[in-house]
Amino acid sequence: MSEPINYQEGAVLLFNKPLTWTSFDVVRKVRNTTKAKIGHAGTLDPLATGLLICCTGKMTKKINEYQAQEKEYTGTFTLGATTPTFDLESAPENQQPVPALDQAGLQAFADKFVGAIQQLPPIHSAIKQNGTPIYHLARKGVDVKVEPRNITIYAFEITKVALPVVHFRVQCSTGTYIRSLANDFGAAIGCGGYLSSLCRTKIGAFKLEDAMEVADFIEQYKQAHQNG
User: Is 35 within 8 Å of 8 (Cβ atoms)?
Assistant: First the structure.
């Protein structure tokens, strides 16, 4: 029987982050189980699911390297309204009629975002202003200033249409906010839009299909160390 992995020494773990969990919820569960130093390579919002890389022990030195790698996401935009957070963390508002666009028509709008572009991050995000995450300030009604970021959209594919819902696949550089892309996509069409579901499927060479569920990891860890 193989020896249990020494997580204090260092390991790279791939998890499928559950819906409504924060990325730190995953980190805390794994840290409480393994008692190892741990960090994650790239935050996922609570309403997103998918690939979360966690590094323990010596492998935490790899976090910045993994964070910098290209990402792939799939999910849905809902057209015909906007939300203050650009996703379903806040209620849809500003309802507008949705143009009767087919997949080719929507793809033409998506194509405009492919390449090196500037993107304005959401004010409801973890970017810090004077040391405070700006979403705290935005919730208090404080005027928040965000600067546009240089990002790259490598691919933006409309995969299915069931208006007002549009299914997509995006490959992008680090620093890209898919929530902002949803908002900008809806604005370009002229009817508004917000992110209604999101799943991260790849980070560099790491794939969601190789990830494990947090509950399964905890159970396997307990069994390995009871029998070890």
Answer: yes
3 state SS of 35: coil
Record the pTM: 0.88
Sign of CA dihedral 22, 206, 198, 181: positive
Per-residue b/e over 104-122, b at no fewer than 16 CB within 10 Å?
Answer: eebbebbeebbeebebebb
User: Which residues are the active-site residues?
Assistant: 45
Which token pair is 117?
A: 């572009």
Instruction: For residue range 19-62, list pLDDT tens digits in order.
Output: 999 999 999 999 999 888 999 998 898 899 999 999 999 999 99
3-state secondary structure of 139: helix
CA 7 to centroid of chain Cα atoms = 25
